[in-house]
Amino acid sequence: MKTLTTTAALAVTLYAGAAYAEINACLITKTDTNPFFVKMKEGATQAAEAKGINLSTFAGKYDGDVETQVAAVETCIASGAKGILITPTDSRALVPSITQARDAGAIVIALDTQFEPADAADATFATDNFKAGELIGEWARAKMGADAANAKIALLDLSASEVSVDYQRDNGFLQGFGIDIKDPTDIGDEDDPRIVGNDVTNGSSDGGRTAMENLLQVDPDINLVYTINEPAAAGAYEALKSFGKDQGVTIVSVDGGCPGIQDVAAGVIGATSMQFPLLMASKGIEAIAQFAETGEKPKNTEGLDFYNTGVELVTDQPVEGVPSISSEEAMAKCWG
Amino acid sequence: MSDQTMPPRKGQDYEQVLDGSATEVAAFERRNETVLKRIQHILHNNPTLVPVVVLLISLLVFGLIAGGRFFSAFNLSLILQQVSIIGILAAAQSLIILTAGIDLSVAAIMVLMSVIMGNLAVFAGVPTFFAILAGLAGGVGAGLMNGWFITKVRLPPFITTLGTWSIFYALLLWLSGAQSIRGQDIDTNAPFLKFFGQSFDIAGARITLSSILMIVIFVVLWYMLNKTAWGRHVYAIGDDKEAADMSGIRTDRTLLSVYGVAGFVCALAGWASIGRVGSISPQSFYEGNLDSITAVVIGGISLFGGRGSILGALFGALIVGVFRSGLRLSGVDVLWQVFAIGWLIIIAVAIDQWIRRISA
To answer: Taking CB atoms and an 8 Å limit, are B278 and A210 in contact across chains?
Structure first.
């Protein structure tokens, strides 16, 4: 009898424990300033609430702030997190930290940016950035038609450190346009005479403007401009306008932020590749819930070493052979 | 009348021996003075000379390497336009550095005020003129806040502005929701915000109003620093605050006013940046703080305060712009542009130290 009550009490305790033990999870983003990550945080928070997961969020102070992210991972391990979603600010430097987290029994999922090696994390949910570049490249070539042979191309990249998203988008665009990219992890090693030059923007509109001005000084006849993201594209457009060249020059970009989509509608940007930070976040939370329940881990998209959350071309001047959606349709899906 | 025709008066008899003595004004002996020493002397007396010479040499060198594309009126005016925002920030930074302080929050104040102007004028429907006034007043307020912590709470400028940098930055992210205000929205609702983006052409050069604003700010501040009592007090405080205090300068009040003026200049930069960038982006000018300090240092203004001309910062900003443009047009990779600017800073400070050694 006595044993029975003890067992019953124990069972009740265990049951109550299971009911009240919330699943702890962490989201660690690169910064709190980029609308992309702000939106990612919103998406993760909503999905976590729906799943009853207790989510703590962390962010680096600036792009490249490894220390803060390492500290965040340590905090997560200490709090007994069941899963960590992270956009590594440095693909290599954070590998030891997340290995510790995995050893402590957490599932680690990279969002947006892959680790090097990619299998350092349990899974990656990301945009195929090379594909994103390829789409705008193919679009630009189809739109220029026969003139593509005489294109004069300006490439407005991210930064001198050439991180993966930077070279993937840049080289994807060039490949889509039909230019021999040589080393796919190197920016600026191409020798096609149609390329006027590369410059860096830090992904901001002031950087975009200055970089565009500099390249226009190299060759005033530039007629196709690739930009790393939409703020840089807006800056490039201002520079073109001040040079009296806002007509007849095509700007392409990547991101899918709402101001960028509005710029597509206004004709400032010819086409942009939209990515889906909300999807990355909600998929990530789902994967953690799944792992907590069954121990099952998500699988990669076939042929890739990550799970592709998709990319869509947004343009109001669709071309044959490149599937796209209009800016109006895109407004419903844009982030930020 | 007859005085004029009189021969030069000879002295008394006992004075006549003086004719054989030295007639020069009393001076230190200049024994063994090498050319280098003399240059050091000249530079000590004219601290702006170094940046001017460097600017001229770099113009010449890049003119030779990159040719007409670089040395055209259009490109030179473009450089002037490209440095205008950082130049204005450097003017504010110079004021602070002349008092032996440093301001890490200048760019945050600038972007915060441009966001305030944009939010009020574009979204809240406030008449643009008042939105700009609010931004400018906010700039003064932000500067005075820095000044208050430094003079009344006695915090070091570095710590204070390190803190307010984060505070202003967080505020601007909150106010903007980390979102850009698009250029097209500004054009339709508040085109006056882009006032300083306008330009006109003279003889192949394109002069932008923001470049003119930058030069006007430098001239006005130069006048205030050199021709008014306030300006001399600023130098005195930077040189030796205690001595300035003892000679009756109300150092705290002057310091407070310096930070207020700097905040105002930052807000002006914020207004001008809307014209330059075309949109209002909370992510822009993240490195503006350091870029402004770079311009000041290359301009030969001593980080130890009290020495250097504010015009040096203008030349410093121009040197950075000339290097960026020249290296770009010569086809040099971005990485080496960063490398070159780094060396410029080291060399500028080394020269400053060498010049200072003259008094030792």
So the answer is: no
